Structures are given as structure tokens and as C-alpha cells.
Amino acid sequence: MDEPSPFDAQSLLVESETLDAFLSELAAEAGRRMPGANGCGITLERDGRPYTVASAGPAAPPLDEMQYTIDAGPCLEALRHDKEVYVTDMAEEARWMPYPPFAVDRGTRSSLSLPLKERHGMAGALNLYAAAPGAFAPADQERLRLIAAQASGALVLAVRIADAQQSAAGLQATLRSRTVIDQAMGVIMGQQRCGADDAFAFLRTASQNRNIKLRELCAQLIRNVTGEPPREGNFRPRG
Asked: On the CB side of 234, how many CA atoms lie within 13 Å of its CA?
């Protein structure tokens, strides 16, 4: 059997168009590098709430969810205590009840959970599951440690990028709303022969009285006056 090529999380991140795509491919790649695995999941915990952000194979989703339900298990222990947790045989495991027999009933006898280092309030774990007991040999564990180490840095970067994109999208939405409000204010200033402050106060009062969002009210006003929808580009702050 050919030795797999070296894992490169940074290249994987660059080639992925979205955070979800990166995480999904990361889970799939970890599973491919452990042929005996029947599932791989990536768990993140933010603000005390764990959730599966990506998975590959049938085993991971129900086993992850069971651990979240009882708030215990090898995955949560790995991410909360920053340590590897290797369960050699679920049939002989006494911790985290009733999770071990649940895993056995679903065809999983061993698992390996590796922490994704905590940074900026985020903790995570890479979780692999296997049908056979003792499925993770020392060489397998070392290979997966390298993947987890690389994934930690790439994951933090990916989350930062996603947060920045979300902030940028929110800013663009704010600017679009501001542009529509500016246009409506111009209409009111022309009709009422008033200044910008009085026009804005007029629109805000009308919005409150009609129980409608200010932007929606302004858009309706512009359509009624011009017969066309408002322009939502070319934002220019008033001096």
C-alpha cells in the first residue's frame, strides 16, 4: 500500500472556498488517512456549547450527538482538558455512561479524540471512530497527531476569515440601508423644505407610528414617489 502524501492544512484552507468546505474536507482527509475508521467528526466548543462542524462517514454524527446530550465522552474530554483520549474498546469502557454501550450498539468499538488547541475562546477536537477494538496503532496515532497540529492553526485562521467575511457582509448591509434612508431623507427635505435632522426625525416618527422598520418605510416612500425601487449602491457619507 502506498504511503499517503504529507498532509498540508494550509494548502487545504487556501483551496477551500468556504469555512464549511474546509472543515468537511479536513474531516474526510483525516478519515482517508485512517482506513480502519468508520467515521470522523470535528467538534468545536464556543461559549460552552459543543457542536459538530463537519463529519465524514456514518459513525460520527450519532456518537457526537450522544456525547453532547449527556455532556460527557472522549470527544468533550479531549477538547475541554486539551489531551488525547484513546478508547481501545468501548465494550470494556466504564467512563461516560451510558455512552460506551451506545457506541457499541452502533458498531463502534474504539475511538481516538485529539484536541485542536484552544485559542481566542475556541476549543475543538478531531474525533475518529472505528468498528474494531484497538484500531489505532502507534503509527496511526502519530499520523493523526500531525494532522491535528496542523489543523489547529488552520482552523483558527479559517474562523477568523469567516468572522471577517460576516462582519464585512453586515457592514455592506448597513451601508445599503443608510443609502436608502439618505434617499428618503432627500425626498422629505424637498417636500417639507426642512433640514436633514428634521427629515430624519420625521421618518423615524413615521416608522414608529406605523410599526415598520425605518429602511422598509424609506424604500416604500421612494417607490411611491419615483415609481422605482431605491438605489442601494454608491454610498457617500454626508459631510
From this structure: 3
> What phi-psi label fits residue 191: left (phi over 0), alpha (psi between -120 and 50 degrees) or beta?
alpha
Per the listing, cell 443609502 goes with 179
User: Tell me, what amino acid is at 146?
Assistant: L
128-148 pLDDT, tens digit per residue, is: 999 999 999 998 898 888 888
Percent composition of the chain: helix, strand, coil (DSSP 3-state, to 5): 55, 15, 30
Nearest to 12 by CA among 157, 115, 125: 157
The strand pair at 110-119 and 122-130 is best described as: antiparallel
CA 97 to chain centre: 29
Question: CA torsion sign, 93 to 96 to 98 to 101?
Answer: negative
Q: Which residue has the higher pLDDT, 161 or 99?
A: 99
